[in-house]
Amino acid sequence: MNLAPLAEVTRGAQVESIHYGAVAVVDRRGELLYSAGDPHFLTFTRSTIKPFQALPFLRAGGPGRFGYGSREMALLCASHSGEAMHVDTVQGMLRKAGCDEHHLRCGCHVPILYATQGSTPPPGETFTQLHNNCSGKHAGFLAHCVQQGLPLDTYIDPSHQLQQAIREDLGRVAGIAQDGMAMGIDGCSAPNYALPLSRLAYTYARLAQGDADPDHGSLMGDLFRAMTAHPELVSGTGRVDLALMQAAPGDWVAKGGAEGVQVLGIRSAGLGIAIKVADGHARGLAAATVSVLEQLGLLAAADTTPLDSWRSTEQRNLRGLHTGEVRAAVTLART
Length: 335
Fold this sequence. Notes:
The chain is an alpha+beta fold. The chain has helices at residues 50-53, 55-59, 62-66, 70-76, 84-96, 112-117, 135-148, 161-174, 197-209, 217-229, 231-234, 240-247, 285-295; strands at 4-11, 14-27, 32-36, 42-44, 182-185, 191-196, 252-257, 261-266, 271-277, 312-316, 322-328, 333-334. Strands 1, 2, 3, 7, 8, 9, 10, 11 and 12 form a 9-stranded antiparallel sheet that branches.
């Protein structure tokens, strides 16, 4: 594999660890402009494809049918932190579709909020599937099935009509044949697909163009507007996707995924950017992302933005002593 350094971890003055991976930067036509490592590195898309998993629902007029506004549409695309604003909105989405928490098939985990805060849940605290970071997406899946009269119990099965429609839409947005997309099961139990990194970048170049997209037009526009209007719902307090979208409101759309995946669409520049850390460890992903934006001239190193704290991360041991930092090591090359 042709991989490039993306981030490094220091101890004292010495580099102790290096995270390798790849970067692809494409234009709105999908032409590769810049890269690091293999820009076509085959990458499971994980949560980055959530906007496109919502396309069948939008195409069928689902948001209007169930009275979903921009907040609910943002939750369709979210990997949320399980905060009250997220859980309450998802619960309302289910209620409007005549469903409840027991219809979900995403499973339950401790809300991301605690990991972000570096804390643990209070003793005796309990959680439900509503706290799953993917519960908004799954609420949309269920609403679509209710509207279309499709089975609810099997909505995450790869052979289900909804999942087949999602696969078709993703292939169309990525510009790749469906039989060229390897499938796996995501952490939330829904089908997920692997794409060349450059094709994943292309999907966000298209998302950022919104209404101007030749295939999905107003649907992409609706998704872009919802995500950029409510980045706190797409991610959560203290999360990097929130900081990225706050750094350029209404221009940058950002979505991370498990196993070290980050994708952005830049409307004003007509760009899509996809980054994958090969070992799946995300601790250097934010620093690498900020560095890529700086190298593309989209973010000045001296700028004061919501991304300041993400340029590098201080490392401390259990006694609170400074031991080093996590910092970017990526270098883009023009292709």
